[in-house]
Amino acid sequence: MDPISNDLTRLTQSGVEEAVRILVEAFEGDPLMDYLFPEHREQPDYLREFFRANLEYAATAGEVYAAPSGNGVSVWLLPGDDGRPVVSKQDDPRLRLKRLYDEEKHRRLSRFRLYFDELHRKLLPGSYFYLMFLGVKKAYQGKGIGSLLVRPLLERADEKKLPCLLDTMNARDLSFYRKHGFEVMLEHRVCGDGPQTWTMLRKPR
């Protein structure tokens, strides 16, 4: 783990397992997880493998941060930044999910990824910061950890004059993100039949 400030720690590949544990707890029962993995409450391995593969990808192609308490994680991608390390298609850790999930789960997951890839390209074709996941352990939610996790990256985006983008499936999260300058850009259902989703944009300040 590499310290980047007095508050947050940037996680490298060696810190992925810590982040997996946090996100599995934070996202248990989330509408997205209910959609992708309806059985995840009884079989949490589905969530663990999903988050592990995505965190391994983001730890190289993006940036992953942990709160000092170890009770929260933020996961960012930076589309359009040519200076970022590139994960080749054959080395993408998300490919192994095809071997781990049955055909129906993998088809649903592939459809989900394609849907958001196309949507984001259409809405914001240039460079931007994308908040992929923000998770805080349930016992620590509402204590300022989420704000601690997003604020430094939002400030960096402002310095670079870049917008920030996120997708949330929880209406209760809208006020939190609005507090940090995000506004709803689009309200939609994932793939037409998935959970209600709010795609939110924050313009640089």
How would you explain this protein's 3D organization?
This protein has 205 residues and is α+β, with helices and mostly antiparallel strands. The chain has a single domain (2-202), classed as Aminopeptidase, CATH 3.40.630. It has helices at 16-26, 31-36, 45-61, 97-100, 103-123, 145-159, 174-179; strands at 2-3, 9-11, 63-66, 72-77, 129-136, 164-168, 183-189, 196-202. An eight-stranded mixed sheet has the order 1-2-3-4-5-6-8-7, sandwiched between helices. β7 (183-189) and β8 (196-202) form a beta hairpin. The longest helix has 21 residues, at 103-123. Mean pLDDT is 91; it is low at 1-5.
Summarize the structure.
With 205 residues, this protein is an alpha+beta fold.
Q: First CA to last CA: what distance? A: 30 Å
- CATH homology superfamily: Gcn5-related N-acetyltransferase (GNAT)
Strand content: 15-25%
Q: Please list the strands of the largest sheet in the order they lie side by side.
A: 1-2-3-4-5-6-8-7
What is the N-to-C succession of helices and strands?
EEHHHEEHHEHEHEE
What is the mean pLDDT? 91
In angstroms, what is the radius of gyration? 16 Å
Low-confidence stretches: 1-5
Count, helices: 7
For this structure, the quaternary state is single chain
* Global outline: globular
Q: Provide the structure class.
A: alpha+beta
Q: Helical residue percent? A: 25-40%
